[in-house]
Amino acid sequence: MKLKEIYEFLNQISPFELQEKWDNSGLIVGRLDDEITQIVTALDLDEQMIEQSDEGVLFVVHHPLIFGGISRLDFDSYPANLIQKLIQKNQPLIAMHTNFDQTHLNIYVAEEILGCKIVQKDDFVVYFELDEDFDDFALKVAKLLDLKMLKTVKSSQRVKRVALTTGSGCSLMRELDADCFLTGDIKYHDAMEAKSINISLIDIGHFESECFFAQILSTHLKNLGLEVIIAQSKNPFTYI
User: Fold this and answer.
1) Rounded distance between C-alpha atoms, residue 120 and residue 181, angstroms
2) Mind giving me the DSSP string for 32-94?
């Protein structure tokens, strides 16, 4: 199957035009005329995946290997070292990032992982309602997402309306209509701001909240009739 056909299929299930302006989803490496027989999907691309995969395999990942402009290619440094290896093995690369967040990832985590019914969806934010003690809810979230550590900001004891954005979403905090926000990469000043506007936060981790990408996408890719391999991305953090 031509890479162009796969790209068009991916664009149908999660249009690339939905991505944020700063994002770089789409074809990162390769030619649309390339012939593809096998697809590897993962949250992130790493050197081991490239080396262990066959020549000509297509990688479809969540996080783009290139975000901004590249002024030079130093093959001893990231990401140029991976780009070099992809070219040498004729392995195309497609990223589905903020477009997939909107169409699939946030919904999946809320419904399939946390078991909550979405009552509203607003671009990168999904909302659900409940009436639980904050501490009990936070511990339940930590268990369901297999969080190795639990970092929270408790602004109220009860949780009634929850907003969720996988990955890193604190820039959206002031726009929310919720009393509790689940997102990753919560920083010190995010916590201070949350206190000032009386919203509780639960840090669900960047990796932990997005590690379902490959699993979700593979269910769609199998409809193409190609071999699809789910590669297990590694969390760059370790917890002691």
Assistant:
1) 14
2) TT-B-SEEEEESS--HHHHHHSPTTPEEEESS-S--S--S---TTSTTHHHHHHHHHTT--EE
- Is the distance from CB of 109 to CB of 212 less than 8 angstroms? yes
Give the model confidence (pLDDT) of 196-212 as tens digits.
999 999 999 999 999 99
Write the CB contacts of 128 (distance below 8 Å, at least 6 apart in sequence).
Answer: 110, 114, 116, 117, 118, 119, 161, 162, 164
Instruction: Give this prediction's pTM.
Output: 0.94
Q: Are 94 and 27 in contact (CB under 8 A)?
A: yes
Q: Phi-psi bin for 45: left (phi > 0), alpha (psi -120 to 50), beta?
A: beta
Residue 181 per-residue DSSP state? E
- Specify the pLDDT at position 165: 98
Omega within 30 of 0 (cis) for the link into 92? no
Q: What is the mean pLDDT of the chain?
A: 96
Let me know how many helices (H) and strands (E) the chain has, helices first.
9, 11
Residue 17 pLDDT exceeds 80: yes
**Alpha-carbon distance values, 190 to 142, 166, 170, 200, 227 (Å):** 20, 16, 7, 11, 43
Cα(236)–Cα(15) distance, integer angstroms: 29
